[in-house]
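**User:** Hello, beginner here. Are you able to go through the protein record under this note? It all follows right here:
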Amino acid sequence: MLSWSEDARVKCDKNLKTGAGKMKAIGKTLVVLFSVMFLGPFPLFAGVEEGDAGVQFAGMDDGWNVPEEARRQENPIRYDVGSVMQGKSLFDKHCLVCHGYWGEGNGIVGLALDNQPANLLKLAGKQSEGTFAWKIANGKGDMPAFGEELDEDQIWTLVNFVDSLENEEGTLVDE
């Protein structure tokens, strides 16, 4: 059974108690509601099997040792609306439970982890596409490696979605 840690509840309450946090949360909630109404429900628990709550997934911390060759690799998948939408679909299926709907590291499973997953909104545009692709493929610690589950094109499509987060505001209030 999935449950929030006390620390996660305090963080959530803190964000919602501020006026800006309330307005952002309400706005994002409306976007999600309209998306669900017109596009169908997004898979909140996709890929989470019963008993997975005890399994840890790692946050992307600063200790990643991404090879230089991987960092310089360029995305072979064209960045366009179609690839970003495909990437969002992959994100919803594989990443949302830890990274959250907006990629802020506040997914239902991510909030229960000792090491909070990376806030992709803060990393988008600051790390190379090759760095993101390598991290997705290889994982580290609690962060699962998706190199066996996703093919190379899917990983690069997922990178396009992460890149699209660069100018998003998200729902968390800066501390």
